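Run log // design_07
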């Protein structure tokens, strides 16, 4: 067995661990079940990767996101470490090859989605592997009371029966005491060693600003920002709009949401990581696995649904431990909207019974039947047919999913996948045989440039709007091209799919889960109230409010949040250094008055004035006849 520090130096180039990493690694190497509760940027992946490398055998990592898996696998490969990931869309033959590689190929890491653990083929392969560790990343997803609950995480228990003696490590950045207890129970961890790092981020200034003109405030703060920023919004439409508005103001940005293709996501992420785009405007689809150290600002311009999600998203700022800001910009309308979306639109037991009966009738499921039958499902069509409220229906479906009545695939807006198999000349010749196919085919070629090179996601509604043909005609044309061996087609013209987990028993089915539904609704109400309390509490340090929510009660005021800054007219030594550095950067661009400097910084104006005087006394800056400061 190699010493952990030697492995750290060899592959990561560091000579010492971050706080708590070594203790966690030692616990894992002693074959103890372990829980690592570390904040975003705390180096969780090293806590399972190093003990896995220190021992013979392979580490199986359960991870919730394809992007997260691919990112870690690519990072390991660059270090010369053999790792592979088994994600969705893999053909059976390819799956067999990958599993054989994991068994016989001397690999050190196998990344799996929790859904894969349902497959008997995967279970049998894991049984044959020489496994040294099971690592459960984003472990809070297994708790029904966690913010990112994933029903598929319940499948993880099967690993205990496959390898009873192999230790588990559960890792997460956000877990309240209640969720942490539930994670330990759900994973059946045996007297685990729990390592809980402080949630305090000394370099991160949490700010809450009441602001009607949010875009103006963002513009002022980002004008002189040379590093990266994230702006979080709640909808895909809003992401596109805000990105366009920032671009029109001369701030280069792009948008990121669940409706864009994997290829587009990867390209946009790379541009942002490389600094080609300063700002990423994103929904919460831009989340786990985003490892960019130099993010200086994280904005939320709509209120988050919980402090768990906010803390994780805000924590993407300042991972290099340099001063950064996490800023909520809100107005009174935002408070009304967060209540409407997450409290008022949650179904009660009576409403859920109506929805469940409607859903069963929609799929023509007979009483006592339907168990484990999968159905393609168009969310939009379903709501239109029965004239249902979209938000109430969506919350009802997710409640049925969380409570184990159905399994709902979260792939709203997924696209049909298409690739042309013939050369462009032969395609054009083929189109001459049928004018209607020609119109559809040429429109697709104009819209999707790389469709000859690789399978490409296409939007049937977009093609319909461009050609004037309804989607049924387009689907028929695509199927004909597939029969003629012109295209390779994977047709997805529904929003998602639903699998009924239990047989239909109408009211009886819902009565069984009614108490859990009440608890779920109450929890969501409590989460929204916690968010509102956080933004409205202007007397207590924002950092203290956040860490107390996660069970940490002995922290000290941060001195740099919006509350601390407003309560102190004299900056601390740390603040003085931070403010003076920011002023230097601004004055390198141009001469400015104290008011102009204050507008562009997030510190209290009184503190900025103090620092300006100190800098002037030290002959670092001077002032001209127009009352503008400049660097000496």
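design_07 sequence
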């Amino acid at each position: 067995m190699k010493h952990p520090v030697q492995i750290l130096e060899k592959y990561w180039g560091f000579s010492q661990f971050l706080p708590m990493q070594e203790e966690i690694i030692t616990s894992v190497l002693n074959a103890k079940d372990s829980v690592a509760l570390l904040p975003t940027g705390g180096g969780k992946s090293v806590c399972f990767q190093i003990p896995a490398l220190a021992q013979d055998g392979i580490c199986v990592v359960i991870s919730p996101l394809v992007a997260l898996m691919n990112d870690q696998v690519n990072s390991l490969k660059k270090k010369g470490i053999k790792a592979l990931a088994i994600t969705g869309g893999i053909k059976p033959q390819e799956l067999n090859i990958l599993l054989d590689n994991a068994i016989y190929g001397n690999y050190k890491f196998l990344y799996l989605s929790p859904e894969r653990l349902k497959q008997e083929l995967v279970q049998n392969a894991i049984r044959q592997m020489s496994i040294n560790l099971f690592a459960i990343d984003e472990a809070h997803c297994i708790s029904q009371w966690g913010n990112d609950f994933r029903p598929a995480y319940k499948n993880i228990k099967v690993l205990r029966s496959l390898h009873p003696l192999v230790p588990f490590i559960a890792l997460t950045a956000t877990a309240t005491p209640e969720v942490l207890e539930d994670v330990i129970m759900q994973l059946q961890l045996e007297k685990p060693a729990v390592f809980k790092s402080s949630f305090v981020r000394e370099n991160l200034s949490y700010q809450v600003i009441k602001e009607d003109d949010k875009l103006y405030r963002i513009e002022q703060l980002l004008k002189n920002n040379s590093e990266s920023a994230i702006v979080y919004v709640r909808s895909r439409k809003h992401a596109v709009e805000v990105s366009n508005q920032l671009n029109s103001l001369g701030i280069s940005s792009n948008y990121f949401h669940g409706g864009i293709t994997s290829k587009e996501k990867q390209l946009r992420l790379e541009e942002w990581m490389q600094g080609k785009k300063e700002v990423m405007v994103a929904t919460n689809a831009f989340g786990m696995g985003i490892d960019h150290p130099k993010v200086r600002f994280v904005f939320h311009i709509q209120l988050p649904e919980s402090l768990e999600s906010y803390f994780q998203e805000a924590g993407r700022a300042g991972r290099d431990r340099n001063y950064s800001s996490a800023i909520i910009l809100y107005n009174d309308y935002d408070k009304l909207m967060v209540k409407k979306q997450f409290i008022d639109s949650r179904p009660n037991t009576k409403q859920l019974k109506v929805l469940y009966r409607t859903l069963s009738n929609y799929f023509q499921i007979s009483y006592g039947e339907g168990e484990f039958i999968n159905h393609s499902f168009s969310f939009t069509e379903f709501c239109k047919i029965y004239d249902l409220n979209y938000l109430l229906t969506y919350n009802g479906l997710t409640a049925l999913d969380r409570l184990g009545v159905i399994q709902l695939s979260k792939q709203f807006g997924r696209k049909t996948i298409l690739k042309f198999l013939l050369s462009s000349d032969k395609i054009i010749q083929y189109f001459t045989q049928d004018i209607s196919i020609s119109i559809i085919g040429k429109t697709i070629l104009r819209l999707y440039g790389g469709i000859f090179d690789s399978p490409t996601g296409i939007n049937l509604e977009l093609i319909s709007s461009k050609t004037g043909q309804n989607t049924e005609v387009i689907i028929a044309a695509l199927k004909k091209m597939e029969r003629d061996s012109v295209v390779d087609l994977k047709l997805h013209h529904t929003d998602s799919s639903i699998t009924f987990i239990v047989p239909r028993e109408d009211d009886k089915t819902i009565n069984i889960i009614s108490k859990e539904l009440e608890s779920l609704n109450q929890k969501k109400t409590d989460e929204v109230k916690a968010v509102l309390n956080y933004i409205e509490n202007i007397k207590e340090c924002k950092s203290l409010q956040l860490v107390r929510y996660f069970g940490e009660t002995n922290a000290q005021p941060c001195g740099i949040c919006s509350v601390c800054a407003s309560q102190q007219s004299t900056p601390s030594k740390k603040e003085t250094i931070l403010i003076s550095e920011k002023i230097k950067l601004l004055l390198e661009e141009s001469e400015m008055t104290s008011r102009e400097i204050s507008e562009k910084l997030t510190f209290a104006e009184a503190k900025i004035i103090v620092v300006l005087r100190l800098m002037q006394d030290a002959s670092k800056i001077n002032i001209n006849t127009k009352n503008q400061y400049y660097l000496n």
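Residues 4-196 form a domain with the Rossmann fold fold (CATH 3.40.50.300).
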